[in-house]
Design brief:
Blueprint (H helix, E strand, L loop, with lengths): L2 H19 L7 H8 L25 H15 L6 H12 L2 H4 L4 H10 L28 H5 L5 H12 L6 H18 L4 H15 L11 H12 L5 H12 L5 H15 L3 H10 L4 H16 L6 H11 L3 H12 L2
Helix pairs in contact: 1-3, 1-14, 1-15, 1-17, 3-4, 8-9, 8-10, 9-10, 9-13, 9-15, 11-12, 11-13, 12-13, 13-14, 13-15, 14-15
C-alpha cells in the first residue's frame, strides 16, 4: 500500500468518525437505534439534539478540527515540535469559532490562559490531584504526531507529550495521547493491526511517565480489559455493547482511549467497521470514533472508504484532505 493512502486514510478515518459520531454523541446505543432505526453508518445533517444542530452532513467537531489545525502548524514548522508549536496550533484552531465553540472545558481553559486570561474562579490547583482533568482532549487531536514518525513510535510519543502539555499536563491524559500517537506511527509505517495494538500499549506505558499525577484508573490496564473483551469472539453488536457498558466511552481518557483500542482489536483494524462501532458505542462517540478511525484508516488506506465520504467532508468544512495528506507524504515520507 502506498504511503499516501495510509496518510490520507488516517485523516479520512478520523474525520469520518468525528463527523458521523457528531450525530450520536451523548446518546446510548438504544437511543441511536430508536432515533435512526438502525445503527448509524452514514453522514447526516446535524440533528436538533446534537452539538452540530443546523450543520451540514460531514461537518466535523472540535476533535478532528483541532487535529487538522495542529497538522497545518506541524507542516509549517517542518515537523519540529516544541512548546511554541503546540501553543501556536491551539491558538490557530481557536481562531475558528465554528469549531472552538465545541471545545471541552480543559482545552478551553488552556486557550484562555494562552490568551492571557486570568484563571477561572474555583480553580482546583490546591488539590493534590485534579482528577477531573484526566480527559480525552489530548488523545483526540494527536494522530498527526503519529504521522510525523512512520514506524517510529518513540518519536511519536515524544512529540505527543510536547503537543499535549499545554492542555493536558497529567499522566493519564498523556498516557492516552501517547497510545494513539504510537499506534498511528506503527500503522503509518506499514505495520499490521497487531503492530498498532502493541505500539499503543507501549505508548500508554511510556506516556504515563510524564505529567502530573492523577488518581484515576490506568489507561494501559483498561486497554488490556478492552482488548480482552474484543477477543472473546462475540458478534459485532455484543462486543460494542460490552465495551460501552464495561470499559465505557466517556470523556475520561481512561474510558475513551481503551474503548477505541478495544474497537480496533474487535474489527481487526478495518476502518469502516471500526468507525461504525465507535459511532454507535454511545456517550462520547465522536471522540472514540475519531481515534479508532485515525489508526484504522492508516492501517486500511484511503481506498477502503467510499469516495463520497471524502467529498462530503471536504465540502462541509472547506478542508482539502488529499492535499494535506500529499503534503505530509512529501515532507515526512521521502
Amino acid at each position: 500500500m502506498e504511503t499516501y493512502s495510509r496518510v490520507l486514510g488516517a485523516f479520512l478515518g478520523a474525520a469520518l468518525g468525528d463527523a458521523m459520531g457528531a450525530n450520536t454523541e451523548s446518546k446510548t446505543p438504544a437511543m441511536i437505534l430508536a432515533r435512526y432505526g438502525r445503527y448509524l453508518d452514514d453522514l447526516l445533517p446535524g440533528g436538533d439534539d446534537t452539538f452540530v444542530r443546523g450543520r451540514s452532513a460531514g461537518f466535523v467537531t472540535d476533535d478532528f478540527s483541532l487535529a487538522w489545525f495542529t497538522a497545518q502548524v506541524l507542516l509549517e514548522h517542518r515537523g519540529q515540535v516544541t512548546q511554541e508549536t503546540a501553543e501556536a496550533a491551539l491558538l490557530r484552531w481557536a481562531e475558528h469559532p465554528e469549531y472552538f465553540a465545541l471545545a471541552g472545558p480543559t482545552t478551553r481553559a488552556a486557550v484562555a490562559a494562552l490568551r492571557g486570561a486570568p484563571a477561572p474562579a474555583g480553580e482546583l490547583d490546591f488539590l493534590a490531584c485534579d482528577n477531573a482533568k484526566a480527559t480525552n482532549g489530548s488523545a483526540m487531536k494527536i494522530f498527526p504526531a503519529g504521522l510525523l514518525h512512520p514506524g517510529d513510535p518513540d518519536g511519536a510519543i515524544r512529540d505527543a507529550v510536547t503537543l499535549c502539555l499545554p492542555t493536558h499536563n497529567n499522566a493519564a491524559s498523556l498516557s492516552g495521547a501517547c497510545a494513539v500517537a504510537a499506534a498511528v506511527a506503527a500503522a503509518a509505517g506499514g505495520g499490521t493491526p497487531d503492530d498498532a495494538l502493541d505500539a499503543g500499549f507501549y505508548g500508554a506505558r511510556r506516556g504515563a511517565e510524564h505529567g502530573r499525577p492523577v488518581s484515576v484508573a490506568s489507561v494501559e490496564k483498561r486497554m488490556e480489559l478492552a482488548v480482552a473483551i474484543a477477543r472473546r469472539g462475540r458478534d459485532w453488536e455484543q462486543t460494542m455493547l460490552e465495551l460501552g457498558s464495561v470499559v465505557g466511552a466517556g470523556i475520561a481518557v481512561n474510558e475513551a482511549v481503551p474503548c477505541a483500542f478495544g474497537i480496533l482489536a474487535a474489527t481487526k483494524g478495518r476502518v469502516l467497521p471500526a468507525v461504525r462501532m465507535g459511532v454507535n458505542v454511545g456517550n462520547d462517540t465522536d471522540t472514540v470514533a475519531t481515534m479508532a478511525g485515525a489508526v484504522a484508516g492508516a492501517l486500511s488506506g484511503a481506498e477502503a472508504v467510499p469516495a463520497r465520504f471524502l467529498e462530503t467532508i471536504c465540502a462541509a468544512n472547506a478542508m482539502d484532505l488529499p492535499a494535506m495528506a500529499r503534503a505530509y507524504e512529501e515532507a515526512f515520507y521521502r
